[in-house]
Amino acid sequence: MDPKYIAQLKQKCKPGDTTTLVEMDPGSFKTFDEDYYTLVTKRRGLFESDAALLDDAETKAYVFHQASVHGSTFEKDFAVSMVKMGRVGVLTGNQGEIRKHCAFVN
């Protein structure tokens, strides 16, 4: 994570503070847009999962592409992804399990 961003977050969130809210997408947190990718390229994501997007070469290339073209394909790509997720068969009851640690079968 960007050290300057860490310092900004520490100014907002003091130890023990459980009431302060921090936007996941500062500057455009009220809109659903591509600015998220720009923040991730600057190492300003709040979560480990944001940073992990830069660990895989293909995903990293996609993130940097979206940041450089200002999300020109973001809405189309998002729609395609949602359709794909809708096709995922969710296992219920005895058909599957909720893993206690996602990398291992219970």
UniProtKB/TrEMBL annotation:
Entry EC number(s): 1.11.1.7
Protein name: peroxidase
Cross-referenced InterPro entries: Haem_peroxidase, Haem_peroxidase_sf, Peroxidase_pln
Domain Plant heme peroxidase family profile: from-to ranges: 1-106
Keywords recorded for this protein, A-Z: Heme, Iron, Metal-binding, Oxidoreductase, Peroxidase
Catalytic activity: 2 a phenolic donor + H2O2 = 2 a phenolic radical donor + 2 H2O
Cell inner membrane found in the keyword field: no
Pfam families: peroxidase (PF00141)
Top EC group: oxidoreductase
Regions crossing the membrane: none
Similarity field: Belongs to the peroxidase family.
Cofactor list: heme b; Ca(2+)
Domain of life assignment: Eukaryota
